[in-house]
Amino acid sequence: MTDGERMEQRQERGAERQQGPSREQRPGDRQEPHVQPPSPSAVDAHGRVLPVPDLSLVVLIGATGSGKSTFAARHFKPTEVISSDFCRGLVSDDENDQSVSGDAFEVLHFIVGKRLAAGRLTVVDATNVQAEARAQLVRLAREHDVLPVAIVLDVPEQVCAERNAARADRAGLPRRVVQRHQRELRRSVRHLEREGFRTVHILRGQREVDTAGIVRERRYNDLRHRTGPFDIVGDIHGCRSELESLLGRLGYEPVHDALGRTVDAVHPEGRTAVFVGDLVDRGPDSPGVLRLVMGMVAAGHALCVSGNHENKLGRYLDGRKVQRTHGLAETIEQLEKEDDGFRAGVAEFIRGLVSHYVLDGGGLVVCHAGLPEKYHGRTSGRVRSFALYGDTTGETDEFGLPVRYPWAEDYRGRAAVVYGHTPIPRAGWLNNTICLDTGCVFGGRMTALRWPERELVDVPAERVWYEPARPLATEAPGGADGRPLDLNDVAGRRTVETRHMGRLAVREENSAAALEVMSRFAIDPRLLPYLPPTMAPCATSKEEAQGEGFLEHPAEAFAEYRAAGVREVVCEEKHMGSRAVVLVCRDEAVAGERFGVAHKGVSGAVYTRTGRPFFDDAAITERILRRVGACVDGAGLWAELDTDWLLLDAELMPWSLKATGLLRRQYAAVGAASGAVFPGALGALEAAQARGVEVSALLERQRGRAADAAAFTAAYRRYCWRVGATADAAGPEGAAGGDEPGAPAGIRLAPFQILAVQGRSLAGVPHTEQLALIDRLIAAEEALVARDGAVAGGGAAAPDEGAVGGVAEAGAGVPGERGERARLLAPTRRLVVDTEDEASVAAGVVWWLDLTSAGGEGMVVKPVQALVRQADGRLVQPGIKCRGREYLRIIYGPEYTRPENLRRLRIRHLGHKRSLALREYALGLEALDRLAAGEPLWRVHEAVFAVLALESEPVDPRL
């Protein structure tokens, strides 16, 4: 940017500030009627009607006794009126105590400021005849970007004196006070507009005061009553052909004039287009764009806000001096070919544009360059300047362009802000804001947002019409837009916009907890594109069968899905291990190119549900990744899915691999203690009984407790085994990298879903199809093992009987496995159940009972079709875990199955856990969508970090 261009921009900004709110409150705006019906306060049909903006600071001006309080009570709500007398009473208990006026006006100004900040019309009832008093009020209005309005009550001195004399609290007021007020009033009236009042209403005489009525005018930017649906179109810059193509994709039908020019576009479903400005400059046909947009606006088919380029063109058409830069020269040349009537219409159209619109009940704000929440619906030169130009840091980048202040990163408003102005490679949501300028005139795309659907629709540019000063896409680290990760992305209270569940909030304390984990223990964030959500437990069961009570039972899960309208569900075996996410790339080069991790020997990641590396030894991670990659290759999925990387959701076993410390401290200690105590206790009781002592009841109870303890030990030992040394170097080619060892024997990985691939999230693929893809991976591994002559098996070794409490040491060799290669991938058994078929439901229950009686943890019930919604649009739980009776001993203790304990445990509060599961699920889906779309790393991590933050919410860990 040249010095002259910088000077011009400063001049433009200064001109906008000087114009002030008049551009926002213009009576000539033809786009929408804004005047509400007159209030019933008009006493006489011949009385004056005083228009007052519905968000303004109304300052009543008049001598004491002029009737200001009566006027305010007649025309405004009691809560809207702040009087100096009332504030004196607050301070001193005496409304006429003039000695506390200083403190009283401090209170008055404080209350006025709070009301204006909250967007409430406020009326100041005080004499306000002194310029200094009014100046403070005008300053307050400017600080809060509202319009100051003066209403002058010019009542004869005699009337004021008589009224004061009739009031007991003012009977002794000297007449000279009224006379002084009248003199000050006369001096002030002529200068009120110069002092900054947007509108001045002067009521002369008692009759005008008594017969006047108030009409509240809706601000021109206030279209909250317009609920859409809308199609919001980003910057056009003279690209008429692309605009017509985009409107066609959105479903608009063009209207042509006698010369074949497009002069309107109508949507058959009554949708309204909204243009964010910058219709002109740089492109090949600015007049054509103006003709179309002006026609749509005039016909009521569209709305349009002003862009900085329209503002500059309007100043040129008004005869003001401007620099013909940034494409304006081309627009002027194109307009010179049009007739005078068209150019006059363009000038009038531009003069009628406002800075922003508030739409859809206040839930949508459309502007050109963005707008912080404190400016929404406000009317001032400052607001208009920000809406047209945004804000800059005062610095320039390497291309000489101003560095813009990232206001959207700090935005936490309820309303979605849709804007343009700054070209970006692709549109994406950030803190409930979205920029739609995707650089069509620079060879990018023209983008529109469908509201309230929040769907993006775009068309490519036909060519590069104007060479940009700065490339649309940069190669700087940190993602597609060159922005690196930043602490401010995750610190404090956060709000994440998701496609499937709207805006989700993360509390500040949860963010702090997640930051501790992410910064100290997590893997390289470039390899951490997803974290799995927590799983919702099924409703508490009261099922009793064969004398056994159940805390969880599949009948509740089937009933819940049936009630939600889900007919087909798939029951998947729940592997008892640790949740693992596996990012596997075809090779190291892919990991470097796609994920930016150019480290030798790194081709992906295996990490836990909190983002930590699963293995301390990176070599083990790579062995597992190579085996999985070989299976993907053998199954032909690289080519079929057209990808060089896969993201898998899986369970990694044994449980003891990651939970050894937990097992030793929490579970093995119980097993060891019971093993040490109960034999002696039972022996003593049996000996006492043999001597004739009556201890049968106590003995029976202790035998039951010993049996429960043994069942507890057996339950957790099923999921613990030794992980042996790695197999021979002669493994399947690709699984272990030629001569490198394969995965350690005893480790099993049970993948159950492919989450995403290059350019696509697979989270919406039905689960039966997902499992079919996983079966192909397992079959490919079987073929690899068979091809190389390795011994099949290599699964779980028997628990080490000599270990404390039955917990085996990981890493020790497994007898009989030396020289053998263990299989890595484990299948997931499943059963499809029809929730509306009693026989099918019964078969599902039997399948679960067989699974759990054989030592299985239980199952997860999922809708066959992923991403299911209820009739009211809410997401259905993506999965409900139903754990087996014996497995739950590990969670609730050895004796939880006793009837008295079950009765107590059945009082479970599941609501928060279920809500958490849905929120984390929506955030996980959002992370996958952003990853698949190639969005920058900080955008993906915004959702990933939020999942980890929600994990710190206090929830019963047994659920």
From TrEMBL:
Residues 1-47 are annotated as: Disordered. Pfam families: AAA_33, Metallophos, PNKP_ligase. Gene3D superfamilies: 3.60.21.10, DNA ligase/mRNA capping enzyme, P-loop containing nucleotide triphosphate hydrolases. It comes from the Bacteria. GO terms for molecular function: kinase activity. Residues 229-425 form the Calcineurin-like phosphoesterase domain. Residues 1-16, 23-33 have a biased composition (Basic and acidic residues). Residues 513-786, 822-954 form the Polynucleotide kinase-phosphatase ligase domain. Keywords: Kinase, Transferase. PANTHER family: BIS(5'-NUCLEOSYL)-TETRAPHOSPHATASE PRPE [ASYMMETRICAL], METALLOPHOSPHOESTERASE. This is Polynucleotide kinase-phosphatase. It comes from Streptomyces albospinus.
